[in-house]
Request: fold
Amino acid sequence: MNPYAFATSALTSGLVSVLEHYSSVFLLGIVGFIILALGIFRINKKITAGITFAAMAISLPLLYFTTTGPAVSMFGGTIIFNNFGTYFAMVMVISSMFIVFPALQKINLKSEVFYALLLFITVGMIIAAFSYNIITIFIAFESVSIGTYVLASFGKDRRTLEASIKYFFTGTVGTAFIIFGASFFFMATSTFNLVGITHVNSSQAFLIAMAFLIIGFGFKMALFPLHQWALDTYDGTENSVSAFLSSGTKILAFLIILRVFLVGFSSDLQSVYYFFVIIAILTMTYGNIAALSQTNLKRILGYSSIAQAGYLILVVVIVAYSSTSGLGTSVIDFAIAAGMFYSLVYIFMKGGAFITMNVISKEKIELSDISGLAKRSPATAVSFAIILLALAGIPLTGGFMAKYYLFIALISGQLWWLAIIAILNSAISVFYYLRIIQQMFWKEPLEEETFNLTTWTKSPVIISAIIVVALGLLYAMFPVLISTAGGLFG
Amino acid sequence: MFIYAWLIFISPLVGFVLSYLVGIKYRNWSGIIASTSIGLSLLFSYLTYLQVNAVGPIHESVHWFYSINYGIYVDHLSLVMVLMVSFVGLMIHLYAMHYMGKDPNRHVYFAETALFTAGMLGLVISSNLVFFFLFWELVGLCSYLLIGFWFFKPNAASAAKKAFIVTRVGDLLFLAGMALLYTHLVGFNGLNGASPLSIPYLIDNAGLVAAHVGKTTLGIVSVLFLAGAAGKSSQFPLHVWIPDAMEGPTTVSALIHAATMVTAGIYMVARLFQVFQASAPFALESVAILGAFTAIFAGILGLVVNDLKRILAYSTISQLGYMLAAIGLGGFLTIGYSGVAYGMYHLVVHAMFKALLFMTAGSLLLAMMELRDVRRMGGLWKRMPVTVTLMFIGAITLAAIPPTAAYFSKDAIIDAAWTYFTGSGFGFISFLPWLFLVTGALLTVLYTFRMFFLVALGKPRSKLAEEAKDPPLHVQIPLFFLAAFSLGFGIWQSHFYDYIMPSTPIPSAPIYIEAIPWAFIVIGVAVSYYLYGTERWKHFHFAGNPLYRVVKNKFYIDYLFTNIIAERIILPLSAAFSTFESHYNTSVDVVGRDTMKLGTFMRRIQDGIIRNYFVVLISGISIIFILMEILRLI
Reply:
């Protein structure tokens, strides 16, 4: 789109409307710059964190009131504001908010940079949540990625640098694939917009575009066999950054995959189904089985987060399969809503699990380091147990409801065999989650003191456990999600 | 209007919690708390009685799940039961404070008996069969716990298991009946929003239900219900648990036999009488025949046992047979619902005198140090005058000697059986109930007085019996109440009948038929005195007689159940299953181990070197593409 057309459309859609819809983005961006500026005055990092948190908290209702309602298309369909996008934007703002205070303790140097970056990443996420154009998506996504490369390097340890470098190298390769894929996409369809592709010039180019984009976005979501950076990165970075990388950015990648492959490639959903069904099975199984014999606690959580990505990606499989076999929109909407619900619960499950690692003061956390936590702080141990049980999908937690809806979607999409594989995988995963719980409750604490039990480390765990349980009771909102699920298609 | 009925079973439930919690620290308070909670139940029952008199049956129900409700339904029938259960339960609890007074775990005992009573009271007033079943099972659980209360005695532990397993057979059949009824009724238009298993709906619209479900199907449902009742009320062939259940404390036996357990089955049949009546005639016929047969069958067994409590246990089975037979006789049109009135009257009278008998037996056993063999007693009337006199009152009531209450209640049943016979054209099958019941009357007199004479008369036949003494008088006060009821309750016969069903006819028979039970009483007392009032019984040796052996071995029914069904069929099966399971377990272990190995291999790929990651990437993606192409070709 040339600058002239852009300006015209900006004027025709109304500058006021643009300002209104982007108000939360402006708010977060401006607060980000203010925080950078405040850094000059060496202001207390707690105040910085407070300002960040407040800005995000304000942006939530702002997002809700300015972007919900009937869908508004801007800049020639590049950006579409609808309820579906709002939901994901809010989920991602929540995921950023979630790590603001837990990060406080470990980020000592240049905390203003950390928080400003977090705000800029959130801006990128919000824009990505509404983008329906590969180039916009790419730019928004890259702004998130580059921000997270820097976030990953924060911390005292040299291991964070190694993790950051690995993340940066592999991430760059992924980006290259995305650009390549985007150009093939343009070759095949003569447009970068995802909605309303009716004509495909060259089906070979279309397929290559699909393959390259799968590699590119698969990197970002850490799908098998593009997952290996994720383990080193989650293991090496600061706990709260791991939490953010494995929850917020992963959900963003999930949303983008949903959008690019289900909307952009809607004329060849057959291939999308074949690609993703293989990837989903491999990802789930790989993550769960590799976690079994692992003894590094953060790596167990890392593998479990790979397995969870496998579950999430099942949504793409169901939708692609039901569209090609003509099962009707109710199944599709149900599956998308299941994915939406899973994303929300996932933020607190996975984020909460990584943030729990803050209670252990060591840098490299082994499974035995958590033994006897129940004796030192029963509340933390019980909360962590609840989070792990939610990840395993045990009833009375939000994790159960999320998995339940997902499996129901699989079954109503007539993918019985896949549901069985997913359930078997869930059963395998119970093993390593229970192993952690066993360590906490039935083993004596180690000789040297490994725990760092303060209010700052304990309360986020307890809060996320409460939220995970509360989300299990909030399944009443599921029909609302179903009604917004159609927004995925613009 | 405040519904007191809810509190009838909630009060002992609270008593259950409190008596245990307080009892942990202060053992002696637990009995007082449990008794108070049951006393409150009696009070609330009385208040509910007044309410029902004023406004008619009380029905409250709350939606539970699917089309199942829970709630309470109190009409005259259930009122009679709650008043009886809470009154007799209170008497037994008061006595138990003496009887169990030295037991170190008495707080557990009282908590359990309070829960037991709560279960029974809840069962009686519940308005839905599912809710009913919940309490039904609670009663079963408590009986298990209490029979095995002295669990350190191996007999008690195995008796508790036996009681639990045997009654479970009946419960399963009852559940099957409920399921059958539910599946046939769910979605039926005639429900008008009621739950398919709602008791008031079923008894008010039994005809409609029968027309929808079909008489034969409803008959099958009824027979399954009857099987449940037979398990709980220990009717043939599920009677085997109750003699063994005598291993529990004697006050528990009194509770089980009089108030809280065995009457549940009878009450269930009485409660659902309309359903039985509306279904095919074989339903109530089988009730009558089963009851009458059990009455005579258990009577025969009662003649040969020497254990004081087991004699009483067999007498209970026999008397429960009378009640069931009375209800079954209602299948004959001119008797109809009054059969329930006859049965319930006998039930209430039986509860009074059986509680009395068991508690006097408890006093005896305290003196005899739990030695239960009647052959080792003797001459106790002189040594324990109050206790044995009370037992005498219980015994003459059990033997239905006029003018005790049981005379009125049992005679009415026997006469009703005669009416059943004459009214249905002198058929042979319809003759059986009368024959069984009237023979049962003779057997009752025989075993009752055999027991009583052996206990009371003659010379003491053991050192313990020589030194036996009455318990203090004040602990026997509850027994005096029960004795007074046993003697005098007959006055209210027609009032009671009319309360269950207005203007119930009192059955009568020709004078020569009426005379038979009287003659049997005279014969029975004379024969037992001849044999057991003196020392003559020592010179008779039955042991070689094959007929005696058959009866002594309880007709080999216990043998059939334990040695043949359990040992020959179920044990080999379970052995086969456990062999399979151990192989299955090994296979699971192997799968687990191999999965772990796979995980270790996968970890090795993750070596932390980026260029190797790209190798994995390229090979992995290539494999996926190849797989995808294969899928597309398919």
